[in-house]
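Re: that backbone. Tokens:
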């Protein structure tokens, strides 16, 4: 029954998505795959357009907190239109093009009409690994991070830190103890996570079907987190990266962008809104292109990641600035 509900929500959505949109790229050879080898990889619209202030996001390892906290509002605003999306540690990508030290990839698990394999964008090649050993663990149970961020450790006693990784990151499980989980990393062998920071699942289909209250509770963990254009991690979200990642953590894959999220799921009238439903906002008094998404939490309010000057917060979805642009709601959870 759990599997059937997932087919109605996430899987059915993807079937519709790929049947209605024709990808603009030819499918790449699946042998050109790799895995993200940094905590969060940031994908750009073009190679070589980065600024010196972006260096912490381009290295291996990355330093996302230094990057996001060092930028002024104007410097953050510059990212709008120059970034595509982000990909979490261990995510599989397909390499589409190469240009010097940069590669264009499609991020698996981020549905979009722009490419059949996943969301496309450019990233430094040194942030990827072929992950030959890592790939052999993909059929193992996985540990999924449930905190906004969590540390990987060199030892089971959590004494020597290795890397801070994001919410919703999934890594194959090698073994467990009462207080720690031993996982495989893309290129650095086995590391350890605190047991309290993860949930372990045999497959994605084994993630329990959430209630609306479940996804709202998860979303509220991020209240106060600064907005980041193209962000999909506990280091910073944009509006649709927020809803996409929250749902993904609950085993439901929805499109990456708000304009596409607004086309799938089940349409919901305002009088029937329930917690966890997605609310959409569009230009031209709600009749134009969808440009924003929030998650309904009840009592006329939504949680969302609004813009580069703000943080994840709760607002009245009918308040001035939102109400006049309301364009409808969609439900991705089977009630």
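Recovered sequence:
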């Amino acid at each position: 029954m759990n599997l059937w509900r997932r087919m109605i929500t996430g899987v059915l959505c993807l079937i519709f998505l790929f049947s209605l949109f024709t990808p603009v790229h030819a499918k790449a050879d699946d042998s050109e795959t790799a895995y993200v080898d940094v905590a969060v990889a940031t994908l750009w619209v073009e190679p070589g357009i980065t600024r010196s202030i972006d260096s912490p996001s381009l290295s291996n390892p990355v330093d996302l907190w230094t990057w996001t906290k060092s930028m002024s509002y104007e410097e953050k605003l510059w990212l709008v239109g120059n970034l595509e999306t982000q990909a979490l540690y261990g995510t599989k990508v397909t390499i589409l093009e190469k240009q010097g030290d940069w590669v264009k990839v499609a991020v698996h698990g981020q549905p979009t009409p722009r490419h059949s394999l996943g969301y496309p964008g450019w990233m430094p090649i040194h942030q990827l690994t072929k992950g030959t050993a890592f790939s052999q663990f993909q059929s193992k149970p996985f540990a999924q991070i449930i905190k906004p961020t969590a540390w990987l450790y060199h030892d089971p006693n959590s004494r020597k830190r290795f890397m801070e990784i994001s919410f919703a990151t999934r890594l194959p499980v090698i073994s467990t103890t009462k207080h720690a989980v031993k996982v495989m990393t893309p290129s650095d062998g086995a590391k350890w996570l605190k047991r309290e920071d993860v949930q372990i699942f045999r497959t994605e289909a084994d993630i329990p079907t959430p209630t609306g209250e479940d996804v709202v509770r998860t979303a509220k963990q991020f209240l106060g987190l600064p907005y980041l254009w193209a962000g999909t991690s506990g280091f910073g979200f944009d509006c649709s990266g927020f809803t996409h990642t929250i749902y993904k953590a609950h085993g439901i894959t929805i499109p990456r962008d708000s304009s596409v999220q607004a086309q799938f799921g089940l349409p919901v009238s305002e009088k029937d809104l329930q917690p966890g439903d997605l609310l959409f906002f569009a230009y031209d008094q709600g009749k134009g292109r969808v440009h924003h998404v929030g998650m309904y939490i009840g009592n006329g309010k939504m949680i969302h990641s609004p813009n580069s000057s703000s943080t994840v917060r709760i607002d009245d979805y009918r308040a001035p600035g939102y109400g006049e642009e309301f364009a409808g709601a969609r439900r991705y959870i089977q009630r």
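Confidence is low (pLDDT under 50) at residues 1-30. The chain has three domains: 2-133, 139-206, 212-331.
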